[in-house]
Amino acid sequence: QLSAMARECSGGRPKSLGPVMYAIPAVLTLLVGLNPLVTGNFLWKSVSAVHMSVCVVWAVGLAYHFLFHTQQNILHEEEGRNPVGGRIQLALAIAIVLFPFISWIYVYTNKEMQSSWPTHCKTAI
């Protein structure tokens, strides 16, 4: 039943690009870990930009699908019927999503932390 739901969410096509979409940022991150100066490479920047663009387009398409093809209200689903569990899961999901952004803002605005950054980190943004 789960694979049928996955096919329904992907427009009837099986999800075969999933591992590739996770492997691309993993390889890009590995390259940065091995050589931090690789972020200045044209190929690295191009692959990163294309991957981010594809992910944004996919997310917009998925949001469109869920917005206009929803069968019923989310509160009618199992998570919505459980007032405690659903709220805890929602709060946890929001915290997990917001943590990287809050961390980035903290690090980026903390001048003491910026003083110890290497040169390639100071010129990245």
Based on CA atoms alone, the radius of gyration comes out at: 20 Å
Q: Give the termini distance in whole angstroms.
A: 45 Å
Largest sheet: none
Please tally the helical runs, counting DSSP H or I stretches of 4 or more residues.
7
Overall number of strands: 0
Order of helices and strands: HHHHHHH
Shape by Cα distribution = extended
Question: What's the mean pLDDT score?
Answer: 76
What is the oligomer described by this structure?
single chain
Structural class: mainly alpha
Number of domains: 2
Strand content: under 5%
Outline the structure in words.
Keywords: Membrane, Transmembrane, Transmembrane helix. The chain crosses the membrane at residues 20-38, 50-68, 88-108. Pfam families: TMEM220. InterPro entries: TMEM220 (IPR029377). This is Transmembrane protein 220. With 125 residues, the protein is mainly alpha-helical. It folds into two domains: 1-71; 74-125, no CATH class. Helix content is 74%, strand content 0%. It has seven helices and no strands. It has helices at 2-9, 18-34, 42-68, 78-81, 83-109, 111-115, 119-122. Helix 2 (18-34) packs antiparallel against helix 3 (42-68). The protein starts with a helix and ends with a helix.
